[in-house]
Amino acid sequence: xxxxxxxxxxxxxxxxxxxxxxxxxxxxxxxxxxxxAQFICSFAGSNMNVMINDISQDLxxxxxxxxxxxxxxxxxxxxxxxxxxxxxxxxxxxxxxxLGLVLYGIGALMSAISPNLGVLIxxxxxxxxxxxxFLIPPVYILTTLTFSEMTGRAHAFGVxxxxxxxGAAAGPLIGGFITTAISWRAAFxxxxxxxxxxxxxxxxxxxxxxADPERPFDIVGAILSAVGLFFVVSxxxxxxxxxxxxxxxxxxxxxxxxxxxFFIGHRERAGKxxxxxxxxxxxxxSNLGLVTQNAQWLILMGISFVVSVYLQTVRGYNAIQTxxxxxxxxxxxxxxxxxxxxxxxxxxxxxxxxxxxxVTLGGVGLLLxxxxxxxxxxxxVPGLLLIGLGLGVMLTPSVNVVQSAFPEAQQGEISGLSRxxxxxxxxxxxxxxxxxxxxxxSTGAYAIALIVLAVVSVIGLVIARFLPxxxxxxxxxxxxxx
Length: 482
Known about the structure:
Blueprint: H1 25-46, H2 52-59, H3 63-91, H4 93-112, H5 117-146, H6 150-181, H7 184-201, H8 219-237, H9 243-269, H10 284-314, H11 319-325, H12 327-338, H13 340-346, H14 349-370, H15 381-403, H16 411-439, H17 445-465, H18 477-480
Helix pairs in contact: 1-5, 1-6, 1-7, 2-3, 3-4, 3-5, 3-8, 3-16, 4-5, 4-7, 5-6, 5-16, 6-7, 6-10, 6-11, 6-12, 6-13, 6-15, 8-9, 8-16, 10-15, 10-16, 10-17, 12-15, 14-15, 14-17, 16-17
């Protein structure tokens, strides 16, 4: 494991190995499997968008069926991210990382041979979703424990978050190319191959802290939070078919979430360790950062789904044509995320997030203004490019804001909460936009879905304005939980 910049071997916590230069060769070897893991998980969330027609015809389903598989994958990630994050302390971070990779690989292979939608959901949504929930928290925990200096950490998060954004944006392009050239099933073989590569690369990753098998685990809290989030997202999916059942799902979901907060508060007051400490929600900076994370991933996955469905069902584009159009967003995210380290030296985290939302909002506006007035596929390019640039600029600062707000002892908790909030945003984006589109592609649903995403951009912009103006350094530990 890498040492923190500026620490000597004698002063390091037990279990760490001193390594210099957080951006040198050793750092690259450390970051490679972690960043690649974030890439493939984000890729899995968006690559199916361009396979809608192919999967629907092959498995005798429709857009709603594919939307269900995508949303369930993102939802399972979200509801299990916090419990799996807590298990990293009990089982060890590297062990959870490898377990997640194995489950993910099994799910990818199962999806590749699926004879019907049910098996596809089991492989893609369940196995890959659970696998992702196990492997993603260690990515951010290990990175935070390794890099304490702000610039070094910003660079590391820039690489990881950047590849995550690229994975989500390039998912349609890579998935479209594989689907057109070979088959949609080959895209899942590609995922399995990447997972195998990550396992090989992760051999040199050493857990900096020992596992604690005696660490208590809040099973009741895990169940309450998972059930609550499941019903809330299920309510969104039912909005276009059964408003009454939708309302019932929302009521049940909110009741379980309220019960979750009541339970963990009671457990903490009783001196027992809850699934999440109430103190995590008392850090104003972190709370604001979490909202921006949720909005960013909602927009990214929402745009991916809306444009993909519109191109395939309204314009009649095939998978590769749809994917090529998304190259603009991919290039935008790639360019701005790779510049994250340099930008963090010149501008505050708040400035980057604010400008990110402004640029993203401009991109959504261009999609609304230009696309309906022309049949040219190039009409999508300016808007998608701006959206990619905007999201790439702010993905890293939002992660950095949240992770840096807490001391090492709470990195397991906040990493799980952060990833859960982000993936919940992804599932909201697919569920909300998918529900709008399925309700009526021929009646202006494309414009309505984009307007919803524009509103989310405005909300994110307003929230970002409330971040501390000089945000840049981590808050002291005693303030992080005050």
